[in-house]
User: What shape does this take?
Amino acid sequence: MQRGRPAREKARGEACGCESREIASIEHQWLSSKARSATVSMSHTGIMASCEHLKTAKHIAPRVHVCEKCVEMGDRWVHLRTCQTCGNVGCCDSSKNKHATKHFHATQHPVMQSAERGEHWRWCYVDEIMDGE
Ligand SMILES: [Zn+2]
Ligand SMILES: [Zn+2]
Ligand SMILES: [Zn+2]
Assistant: This one.
């Protein structure tokens, strides 16, 4: 029974007087005024953007821990990425040959995942969205 609390108590406790703030609606106004301009791609704070590719992609582990294309060329790479459509392992964009990105351009396979140990993030080339860590 919370009703009928003594008024004394209220005064002593100095009710914080917090009114519901209107920040959310201000933000809304700002967003809708900006919505038609080009900068809608900003992600809402706290919400991880995702796309159909990332949602529906398989989980394919790398079957090798080399970039086979680089090995063929006798070249080196920095990091490895695994195609989540066919399992192709290619080197990252920090690598000279960017075989993972080239694989996407050649095949349109949209999602790759880092093949580095301890890294689980995925990347959609089509929507340019990262997922996970
Ligand atoms: Zn996508
Ligand atoms: Zn490579
Ligand atoms: Zn592929």
